[in-house]
Amino acid sequence: MALEDLSQADLEQELAAATEAYGDFAARGLDLDITRGKPGTDQLDLSAGLLTAVAGDDIRSRDGVDVRNYGGLEGLPELREMFGELYGVPADQLLAQGNSSLTLMHQALSFALLAGTVDGDAPWVGQPRRIICPVPGYDRHFTLAEALGFELVTVPLDDEGPVLSAVEELVATDPTIKGMWVVPMYSNPTGISMSEERTRALLAMPTAAPDFKLLWDNAYGIHHLREPHAPMLDVLGLAADAGHPDRVWVFASTSKITHPGAGVAFYGGSEANIGWFTGHLGAASIGPDKINQLRHARFFGDAAGVRRHMSEHAALIGPKFAAVIEKLEAGLAGTGAARWTDPDGGYFITLSVLPGTADRVVKLAGEAGVKLTPAGATHPYGLDPDDAVIRIAPTMPSLADVTAATEGLAVCVRLAACEKLLAQD
Ligand code: PMP
Known about the structure:
Bound molecules: 4'-deoxy-4'-aminopyridoxal-5'-phosphate
Distance between the termini: 18 Å
GO molecular function, one term: transaminase activity
Keywords: Aminotransferase, Transferase
Number of strands: 13
Protein name: Aminotransferase class I/II-fold pyridoxal phosphate-dependent enzyme
Strand order of the largest sheet: 2-9-8-7-6-3-4-5
């Protein structure tokens, strides 16, 4: 029976049982961390060959370019082709750059601030500016936009993407709404993927700002955990069909494919956007790290090589996701105290607990030795108005640790729910 349907006496009994279970859990003296979406060491080892893929005097790219020297602002063509195929972007509309897609997002927004966009009439700086943040979302998107002076405006996210009516209402009349974050596949943190219908609608909708942008952060586009694979949409083709070819800036990186912080990041867009981006970038750089790009091109060989590599990742982390789901079900099914996502890809599981208890759950877990992402981190300014969303990142700890951590987490959720319901009576 759901906790909220229990009599006062039964609820008190549940509280006593949960308190005892919590005490037992804390007594295990664990020291576990399921906060950040980092790959585990075994995943990093999958890319060990990368470190020796360019050696000695074998330093020429496919076209005979000596990668040790300056130049090639757009990135190595062989890598742009390989990842263009994977992300559904024509190679000449995809730039291969440095080690971080977040940096590219920061740069694109900075260029828009300082110089305006291809379809706008003025630089964004000096104007009031707002950006739509679907929630729950990725905390670093929020921090990045806030650091550049954007006001963060939330819309809810459902199973197909940002709720269209909420987005339409904002963009239709408010020219200060300059853009929206989107994690189109296996989103951080809910794991949902955008439907084609929702995508088409976002690309077609009228916007009061002529230079409204979708920041299409496909960080998890090829990070499938199991079938069915979410489809890779031809977002640039769809944007052109919708009559807004310049509306989308595509981002991706190999951070969770090879080595985070030492990978290759990509920027994709219409021909006009590519010209715009490289035009500004050319003032900042003589070219990206082509040695690292050649390492990646050689290590994978082709797009099929990347896909094989991603299935090796899935084999390592799939069991961790399955363990989290199993322990949440074992500890919480039928209690009505929580819901959780069971994603087909990506890096996260979202746990939605009884409103008003997320912060308490995170504190309880922390005191018992399980570090969780702070409650609220999935919302702009760290404020989840319902205090209900917790992000679980199962990849980095061992399978045994993630299993133990989730067992404990389920106890904390039950305990916090009992406390809350009793306090309401
Ligand atoms: N976007 C999303 C949605 C992410 O979850 C992450 C990593 N946590 C990043 C971007 C970071 O990408 P990068 O390492 O390429 O800067």
